[in-house]
Please model this.
Amino acid sequence: MYEILVTIHIIGVALGVGGATVSDLLFFKSAKDGKIEEYEFGFMKIASKIVWAGFAVLVFSGVSLFILARLKLLGPRVMYNPGIWAHIIAAAVILFNGLAMHWKVFPAFEASLGIPFGKAEQILKNRKIIFTTGAISITSWYFALVLGATRGFGLPLSWILAAYVFAVVCAVIVANVIGKFLMNKFKQ
Amino acid sequence: MGILFQNLLIGHILLGLTGIVFSTLVLVGFFKKPANVKFLKITSLSAFLLYLASWVAGGYYYVEYYGGKVKPLIKAGPYPFAHGIFMEAKEHIFLFIPILAGVVFLATCLLGDKINQEPKVKNALTVLAFIVVFLGVLITALGMLISGAAK
Model:
């Protein structure tokens, strides 16, 4: 049962991390010409659905692994592992960040199809949210992936979370700098 | 742990988790312009029923097994606050979830297409749906902390 659940969990990783990566790449590819076309938005929606499907697979298989550990009464030594809890916190961030994307980012894209960025009111208005949520998403997915593979290197939870926050902050800054450059480029 | 209580525990967790999935679908459904009212009715009812089922499974397990077998293990272990704080908090916070999920379902049924015509109503229901998701995630984390303390 453990091996089956781990295999399913890995499938979820492939869908989630792969989908998030493709989604970000699709955005930057479509941003090259300064506007998002309808077919490009269609691809982003498909990638988004793959990410959500992957996330659901990950959550159910991950919780099932937790249930297995509970039924075996493995106790706090295993179930309070800092790497696992940092993993769970990253998953919660991915969920709420994903909800923020559906609340603000996708509607902004949908309202701006075919409109150059320099004139797309919704994209200009939500520029910071767009690039911030994108940065949080990709950083969180890869952070969770590394945690899953390494179990947090045996470090305390506070250190792992500090590294996570640092990575997210750096990613958000870089993404917003790129975003400002892109918007300025297409405003001219 | 006998097969019955194993299945009740597994059922409690997976039913609750599936309820959170449907509540997330409800929340994302409210983001759409216009919102698909039929979709919202189905997903909000599903979430409500799943939370009720999770409540029943967890309640029976809690009364008939947890109190006598698991609670003493936790209280004797290195993290007794897992029961003293986390379980006590969970017992009270979880009550909000099926009630709020039921309110979202009832409001969606009674209002119907008015949801799309009155932004303030839609926003209020969106906030309510978000609270359900947030509490669901919180309750899941508390449950994992409680389970983790049992050895």
